[in-house]
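Hypothesis: this fold can be encoded by more than one sequence.
Test: take the structure tokens below, design a sequence, compare later.
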């Protein structure tokens, strides 16, 4: 069992926002999340566990430091008053004072003491003799958040080698059968260790835990304190049959029964020989992803041809079939690209997205001019008009895509930002058919959902997606699972549907072709794909 650690692992990243200028009004709290998962209130897996690091958001909560500095947990430990701010948490008749790792006017990271009881809680911040609003949140037994490489709660998880402490990434993949260390917070109360001071003899936390890699459970050797207040360490062996990919899904389940919660959903690069990963689905190598995500900006293009069967808009009944030909050319920040590369996980993997307002500036996305675009398929040629800068196309005629699929070729004339190009996408024959749609009309979130299909292209994959919104709580979530087409069946796990809010939404089953890359001057990377699928209305209970 290894218990090595570097400060880089804790702050990859606490998502420290630039300090804002202090206004002449009192402190205000606007939100609270786990320091790593960022799962907002209103979801079944939200809440803050005793003994975990949380992040508080608001305005005017402290003095603006000249430099945001992570406080040391060496004796006497991280402070309970920092930059003039003091926190108070009350649950029932118990009041505790969390110690803080850092404090800025807009954001504070602190450790909820392990003695905090579970239940409905309030938190306030006192600054300059003024006390903020009493912000409500839930203290829950377990709410594990996994640290992620880009500090966003999604994409690559922060995983390190048990011997060297080296980070795993797109060019340094984990191997099946290898033991790695995952980092995070929220396993639950750790009364054996300090909430403020570092300890050289950390203890395990007695919380039932499962870690899944691409839907396959790993073997956990240690789960508990890292020695640093609130920071959990999980030593886990990657299963020998974990699917290799640049984005193999990683998710944790903590607790049992009614107290079981699912973590945020991340990914891990896995390769049989370690080193650089290769993604057969996305058609991209680990060195390419690493290079692009390391750039200040990435200019990319994506093309797709799609046929989607959807419920007709009320008051009409039945279904409508729509065909689409579209293209998008954008410039975005490299780190954003590195996070979004995990949008296409390995087969067997699932991910869940839970809506949250980002605390900080979102990535800047700029459209790129690619000139005039056209699409040619088995039934004819179609102009793809620009709908905005960098966005092209829309619906194409009803007869453009038939059950026999076929080849579709995009032609770009080139424009001010993107040069000319030609790319072909092949839709499979026969098209995929979802055969048990009625089973998903009402989904019991505690039971998952089973999907069957026929058809689809050999060597392609199937994406099962769903979304749900609860108009009472305002929570909105979506999930995505990936399966091999040849399996003809897939069960969305209960921990995936269980992370969705109860409410109404949709679910779809889509056959997606393997991605094909294309090149054009002015682009760092271009890819195209085809999809066909069916969408239905769903109630999530």
């Amino acid at each position: 069992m290894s218990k090595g650690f570097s400060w880089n692992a804790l702050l990859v990243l606490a998502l420290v926002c630039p300090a804002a200028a202090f206004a002449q009004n009192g402190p205000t709290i606007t939100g609270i999340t786990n320091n790593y998962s960022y799962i907002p209130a209103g979801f079944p897996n939200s809440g803050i566990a005793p003994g975990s690091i949380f992040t508080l958001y608001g305005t005017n909560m402290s003095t603006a430091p000249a430099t945001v500095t992570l406080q040391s947990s060496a004796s006497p430990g991280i402070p309970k008053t920092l930059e003039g701010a003091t926190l108070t948490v009350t649950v029932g008749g118990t009041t505790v004072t969390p110690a803080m790792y850092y404090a800025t006017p807009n954001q504070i990271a602190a450790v909820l003491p392990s003695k905090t009881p579970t239940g409905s809680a309030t938190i306030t911040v006192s600054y300059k003799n003024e006390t903020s609003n009493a912000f409500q949140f839930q203290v829950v037994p377990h709410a594990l958040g996994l640290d992620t490489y880009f500090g966003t709660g999604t994409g690559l998880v922060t995983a390190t080698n048990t011997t060297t402490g080296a980070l795993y990434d797109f060019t340094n993949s984990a191997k099946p059968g290898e033991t790695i260390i995952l980092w995070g917070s929220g396993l639950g109360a750790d009364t054996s260790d300090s909430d403020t001071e570092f300890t050289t003899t950390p203890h395990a936390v007695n919380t039932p835990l499962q870690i899944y890699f691409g839907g396959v459970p790993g073997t956990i050797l240690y789960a508990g304190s890292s020695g640093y207040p609130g920071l959990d360490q999980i030593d886990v062996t990657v299963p020998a049959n974990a699917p290799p990919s640049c984005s193999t899904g990683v998710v944790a389940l903590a607790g049992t029964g009614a107290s079981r919660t699912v973590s945020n959903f991340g990914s891990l690069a896995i390769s049989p020989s370690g080193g650089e990963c290769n993604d057969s689905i996305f058609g991209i190598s680990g060195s390419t992803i690493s290079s692009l995500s390391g750039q200040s900006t990435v200019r990319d293009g994506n093309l797709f041809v799609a046929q989607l069967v959807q419920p007709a808009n009320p008051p009409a009944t039945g279904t409508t079939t729509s065909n689409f030909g579209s293209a998008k050319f954008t410039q975005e920040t490299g780190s954003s690209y590195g996070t979004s590369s995990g949008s296409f996980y390995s087969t067997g993997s699932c991910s869940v997205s839970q809506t949250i307002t980002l605390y900080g500036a979102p990535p800047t996305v700029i459209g790129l001019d690619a000139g005039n675009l056209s699409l040619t398929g088995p039934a004819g040629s179609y102009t793809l008009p620009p709908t905005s800068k960098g966005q092209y196309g829309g619906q194409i005629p009803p007869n453009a895509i038939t059950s026999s699929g076929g080849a579709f070729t995009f032609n770009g004339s080139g424009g001010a930002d993107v040069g000319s190009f030609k790319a072909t996408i092949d839709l499979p024959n026969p098209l995929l058919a979802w055969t048990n749609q009625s089973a998903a009309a009402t989904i019991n979130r505690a039971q998952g959902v089973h999907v069957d299909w026929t058809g689809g292209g050999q060597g392609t994959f199937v994406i099962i997606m769903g979304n749900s919104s609860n108009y009472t709580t305002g929570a909105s979530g979506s999930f995505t699972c990936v399966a091999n087409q040849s399996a003809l069946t897939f069960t969305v796990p209960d921990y995936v549907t269980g992370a969705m809010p109860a409410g109404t939404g949709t679910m779809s089953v889509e056959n997606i072709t393997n991605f094909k890359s294309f090149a054009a001057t002015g682009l760092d990377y271009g890819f195209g794909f085809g999809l066909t699928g069916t969408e239905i209305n769903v109630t999530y209970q």
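Helices lie at 7-10, 286-293, 334-340, 494-497. The first strand starts at residue 28 and ends at 34.
Hypothesis status: open.
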